[in-house]
């Protein structure tokens, strides 16, 4: 502090020294500071080591040889602020989400603030591989002794170092010690890579993949989840299953034979499941016969097939030594077959299937080596026998779908249904349905026919193509009953047989339907055929009906429906209203038969109900309730979103099990449009209502409490960029435009700093206009101001009294140019109007001239030409553009000399036209109208030809 003084009365004695005393204004003089023995030759002194931003009271004493004077009048003065000398205290970092960290701290110590703390700068940087080590700076206004700020838009599961600085008007203080914190874990944002699926066997597949990119894990990888489900032939999905593993490979076992599967793989962290991979499709293999079954020499595969034992592996059992003891594991059951007594086992054989829980089974004598035996869940010490599911059926008539051949291949299941009806005295027709589980490609069907008591050792066998689901068996005996059954055949062998049906050929056959009822599922807008094949003698008639609420409505043929000659009902372009129960009835004189078909038409799913759950600066969380699935399970959802003012929609595919989704990496402070649709096997359904949601944040705003300029001299001006508040979204661009007032050209400058910017090479003693614009993702904020540089000696200049604003030049040009433009437009408009009028007048004159020439020509052709027919006045109708004339004679004849003329002369104006023909009167001037004279010949009442003369004039009508 520089202190100056003037000595007044010296007491008539030379001043020998001065003393300066000063203290804090709030203290008493008992706590003063003193500067003593200042030379009397000085009239100023510098007081140092004062505290910044403090108010002091100062007084002085003067000394002469007599003594000390009274104190001077107290002087109160404030020191200027200085940058803080201490850092903020108690800085604490708390991770809030995977992309945000909350920072809390307290203000620096009071004695180190050196002024009023205006705000804080928070610097943060990523401390990890690939980071540049530079701090990103954000600022906030001081609100009190304790402060809180949340850093957003950080990287997921990344470590950050944070420092905090306080600042006042004088500048920024020291930084706090850097403290590190790691953002929370999040789900992986990318799926596993290189997902592959390999079908190993008919019921096993191997799925392999590679780890997602490290930077996309966003956490500690806990493992992988493989999601898979079967795809049925009708398009429906099976139950969704999943397997969790820590390896990058998994074996899917126990799959359905020869079945399509969809597979997806995802990685998961502590935060949850990540993004699924694209759907991978795989089909399990068809079971085929293989080599080597461990059978004894001479074993017959055909015999094994006829036994029909439900073994995973059938091993012929033969004992080398008589009376060998076979040790069986305890608690394991052994199945005793009907032929067990042939083996000589010490067990009762009175029942068809017997079960034992023995540790040992003794054989009294070895059986022939070619005998086959089915054992269950036991491991013999001398020979290995494998798992067996159910008792053996010697006759092979079981309906178990788990049969295997001698190499462990799964055989087809039984046909889903079978019918047999008589078609003549010596034939029957058999129909069947394919197996529900074919376990392979069906190569053919085998139909068996046997007659009880006929003495045949084996049933008759017939083969049918796999495309044919019916077969006619001929050469049967009338009145004799037959048992009929069927089985499907694949490369693995003959499958399980169907149930047996009994039929008797007959001469007169009541109506029977060969087709099967049941449920038929189809997508909409497809053609559906509902078969209803029938037999009977006499031939039956077919009738289709559809059930309604109260009665059955007959189905009639139209453009959408047709009943073929074989009884098949054809429905074209089916819709949801075509769903329902259809009944086919076959009738003849001996009876009738019916089947009921439930038609289910699948349609796209209904629109879901979409809502917004939460929003943040970079994400929008959505939730929804699905609508009706349209008769087909929902395959997934398609979420579409775009920025509000664009139509560039982005698609996000979401699993069918999800009911909420978070859109990440959105722009801060931006409106988004979102819509959602569900998908099923038919296609995408109706789109939900478009909803709008906005992420948090707004455009930057300049704080009115902050000064716009921090320093001005004759050639430089310092701008305070810290006065801009980000609005919650980081400021990305800051542009400045400035120019001397009264000039046209703006000078542009882009700010790279976020704290302060200097404008250099300014003119001395000049007023400037300044425009500042700060932008972030939410928008741009503007701030305008004016400032003046100082004179060369540092003095300020007065304001300009009639300073023009920014838009004054434009307004002046507009005020000068507007009248000129208006006059020019007016002159052009008058010229156009006059030109149009002139063209109209010329057109009217041309029309009048043409009309006159036409009438004169007509008059010349009519002279001395008698008119035949009944007497009537001549009528002339002329149609020309914008002119319509109707001329006809008036009744009444007036004798003029030796000629008769019309006595009545009146003006005819039938239509409102621009031209009118009228008889001229004496008062009419010949100059204003052109007279047309025409002579007309008419036949009088007594056969006397009379000549009439009429005169007309053409002139402008009054309505023109």
UniProtKB/TrEMBL annotation:
Keywords: Cell adhesion, Cell membrane, Disulfide bond, Glycoprotein, Immunoglobulin domain, Membrane, Repeat, Signal, Transmembrane, Transmembrane helix. It holds the Pfam family fn3. Residues 1-82, 87-186, 191-287, 414-508, 604-698, 703-794 form the Fibronectin type-III domain. InterPro entries: DSCAM/DSCAML_C, FN3_dom, FN3_sf, Ig-like_dom, Ig-like_dom_sf, Ig-like_fold, Ig_sub, Ig_sub2. It comes from Pleuronectes platessa. This is Down syndrome cell adhesion molecule like 1. Residues 510-602 form the Ig-like domain. The chain crosses the membrane at residues 813-833.
């Amino acid at each position: 502090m520089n202190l100056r003084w003037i000595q007044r009365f010296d007491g008539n004695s030379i001043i020998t020294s001065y003393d300066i005393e000063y203290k804090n204004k709030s203290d008493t003089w008992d706590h003063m500071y003193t500067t003593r023995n200042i030379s009397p030759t000085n009239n100023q002194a510098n007081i140092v080591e004062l505290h910044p931003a403090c108010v002091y009271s100062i007084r002085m004493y003067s000394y002469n040889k007599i003594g000390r004077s009274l104190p001077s009048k107290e002087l109160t003065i404030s020191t200027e602020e200085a940058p803080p000398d201490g850092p903020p205290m108690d800085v604490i970092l708390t991770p809030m989400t995977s992309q945000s960290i909350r920072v809390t701290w307290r203000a620096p110590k009071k004695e180190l603030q050196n002024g009023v703390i205006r705000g804080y700068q928070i610097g943060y940087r990523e401390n990890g591989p690939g980071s540049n080590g530079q701090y990103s700076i954000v600022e906030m206004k001081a609100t009190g002794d304790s402060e809180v700020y949340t850093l957003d838009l950080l990287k997921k599961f990344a470590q950050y170092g944070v420092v905090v600085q306080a600042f006042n008007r004088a500048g920024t203080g020291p930084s706090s010690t850097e403290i590190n914190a790691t953002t929370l874990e999040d789900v992986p944002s990318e799926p596993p890579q290189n997902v592959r699926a390999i079908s190993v066997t008919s019921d096993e597949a191997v799925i392999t993949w590679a780890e997602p990119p490290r930077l996309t894990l966003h956490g500690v990888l806990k493992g992988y989840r493989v999601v898979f489900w079967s795809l049925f032939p009708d398009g429906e999905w099976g139950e969704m299953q999943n397997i969790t593993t820590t390896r990058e490979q998994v074996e899917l076992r126990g799959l359905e034979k020869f079945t399509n599967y969809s597979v997806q793989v995802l990685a998961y962290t502590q935060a949850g499941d990540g993004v699924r991979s694209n759907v991978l499709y795989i089909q399990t293999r068809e079971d085929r016969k293989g080599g080597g079954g461990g059978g004894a020499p001479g074993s017959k595969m055909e015999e094994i097939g006829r036994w029909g034992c439900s073994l995973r592996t059938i091993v012929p059992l033969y004992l080398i030594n008589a009376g060998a003891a076979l040790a069986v594991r305890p608690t394991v059951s052994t199945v005793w077959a009907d032929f067990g007594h042939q083996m000589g086992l010490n067990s009762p054989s009175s029942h068809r299937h017997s079960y034992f829980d023995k540790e040992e089974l003794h054989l009294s004598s070895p059986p022939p080596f070619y005998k086959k035996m089915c054992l269950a869940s036991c491991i013999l010490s001398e020979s290995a026998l494998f798992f067996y599911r159910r008792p053996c059926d010697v006759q092979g008539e079981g309906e178990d779908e788990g049969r295997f051949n001698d190499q462990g291949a799964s055989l087809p299941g039984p046909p889903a249904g079978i019918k047999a009806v008589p078609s003549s005295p010596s034939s029957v027709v058999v129909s069947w349905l394919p197996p529900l589980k074919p376990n392979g490609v069906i190569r053919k069907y085998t139909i068996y026919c046997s007659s009880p008591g006929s003495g045949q050792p084996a049933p008759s066998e017939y083969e049918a193509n796999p495309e044919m689901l019916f077969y006619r068996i001929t050469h049967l005996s009338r009145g004799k009953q037959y048992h009929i059954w069927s089985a499907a055949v694949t490369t693995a062998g003959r499958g399980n047989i169907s149930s047996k049906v009994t039929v008797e050929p007959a001469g007169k056959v009541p109506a029977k339907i060969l087709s099967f009822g049941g449920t038929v599922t189809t997508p909409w807008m497809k053609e559906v055929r509902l078969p209803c094949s029938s037999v009977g003698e006499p031939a039956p008639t077919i009738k289709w009906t559809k059930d309604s609420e109260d009665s059955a409505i007959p189905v009639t043929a139209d453009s959408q429906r047709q009943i073929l000659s074989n009884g098949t009902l054809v429905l074209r372009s089916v819709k949801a209203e075509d769903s329902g129960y259809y009944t086919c009835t076959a009738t003849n004189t001996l009876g009738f038969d019916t089947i009921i078909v439930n038609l289910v038409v699948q349609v796209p799913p209904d629109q879901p109900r979409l809502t917004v759950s939460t929003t943040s600066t970079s994400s929008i969380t959505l939730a929804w309730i699905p609508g009706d699935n349209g008769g087909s399970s929902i395959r997934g959802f398609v979420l579409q979103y775009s920025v509000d003012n664009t139509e560039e929609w982005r698609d996000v595919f979401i699993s069918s099990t999800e009911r909420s989704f978070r859109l990440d990496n959105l722009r801060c402070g931006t409106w988004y449009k979102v819509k959602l649709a569900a998908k099923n096997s038919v296609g995408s359904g109706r789109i939900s209502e478009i909803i709008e949601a906005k992420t948090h944040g707004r455009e930057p705003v300049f704080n009115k409490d902050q000064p716009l300029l921090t320093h001005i001299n004759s050639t430089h001006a310092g701008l305070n960029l810290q006065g801009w508040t980000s609005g919650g979204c980081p400021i990305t661009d800051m542009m400045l435009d400035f120019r001397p007032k009264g000039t046209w050209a703006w000078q542009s400058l882009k700010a790279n700093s976020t704290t302060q910017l200097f404008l250099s090479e300014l003119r001395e003693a000049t007023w400037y206009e300044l425009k500042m614009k700060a932008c972030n993702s939410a928008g741009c904020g503007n701030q305008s101001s004016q400032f003046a540089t100082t004179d060369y000696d540092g003095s300020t200049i007065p304001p300009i009294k009639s300073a023009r604003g920014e838009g004054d030049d434009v307004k002046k040009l507009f005020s000068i140019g507007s009248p000129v433009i208006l006059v020019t437009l007016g002159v052009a408009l008058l010229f156009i109007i006059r030109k149009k009028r002139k063209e109209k007048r010329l057109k009217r004159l041309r029309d009048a001239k043409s009309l006159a020439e036409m009438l004169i020509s007509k008059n010349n052709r009519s002279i001395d030409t008698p008119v035949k027919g009944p007497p009537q006045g001549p009528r002339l109708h002329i149609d020309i553009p914008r002119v319509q004339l109707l001329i006809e004679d008036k009744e009444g004849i007036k004798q003029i000399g030796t000629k008769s003329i019309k006595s009545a002369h009146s003006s005819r104006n039938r239509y409102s036209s621009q031209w009118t023909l009228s008889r001229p009167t004496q008062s009419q001037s010949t100059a204003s109208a052109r007279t047309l004279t025409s002579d007309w010949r008419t036949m009088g009442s007594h056969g006397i030809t009379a000549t009439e003369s009429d005169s007309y004039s053409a002139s402008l009508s009054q309505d023109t």
